[in-house]
Amino acid sequence: MRILLATLLTAACAMPVHKDYSKLLAANPRAILIVPALNKSVEVDAPDYFLSTLSVPLAERGYYVFPVNLVKRMLEDDGLSDAALVHGADPIRLCNLFGADAVLYATIERWTAKYILLSTQVEVEFNYVLKDGKTGDLLWEGHEKSVYQSNSGQGLLADVIMAAVTKAKPNYMDLARGANSRAVEYPGPGLPAGPYRPEYRMDVPEVVRVRGKPAPASKPNS
Q: For 200, phi and psi rounded to 5 degrees?
């Protein structure tokens, strides 16, 4: 039976599109440490699934990203086995452990699937905070949300079946990937190109580059 046609609603949280990137440009991070996500949802496996979707979009923006599984294991060896402990730790200490320039904290606000009338609504929502590894200053923050509403478009029975399938196996991963990609997307509220992209230092307005006092644009080392 063909069960298709669902409506994907994606919504970014209300936040300024035009951000002050001066601190981020001045800090000039090249290597970013992604630490285990703080989970405010009831799904205990959500952090591991979520982290597996975060590295790629950040690396595609031109930043080096430490392998998240290795990071998690090393933090556990250092006595930081709980995400709450990690998020409460000094970002300078965390970056020094790995030789990172900045640390990215992510919080899972929502990771749910609920039955509504004849459909199932799957929703994910995340907060992101990037801090400087030298000063601990806030460099950037973001907030993203994705919602998937099952709807077969083929009548009552098909809607019921579609809702049951979605409820049994919610497609969290695609929603998380989409949210993470939008969070770092630029132009917009995301991150300017990192040193491993050709448009590095050239995709932000000149006035922002001057305020951030960036180093002269140069081709990054491979």
A: -50, 130
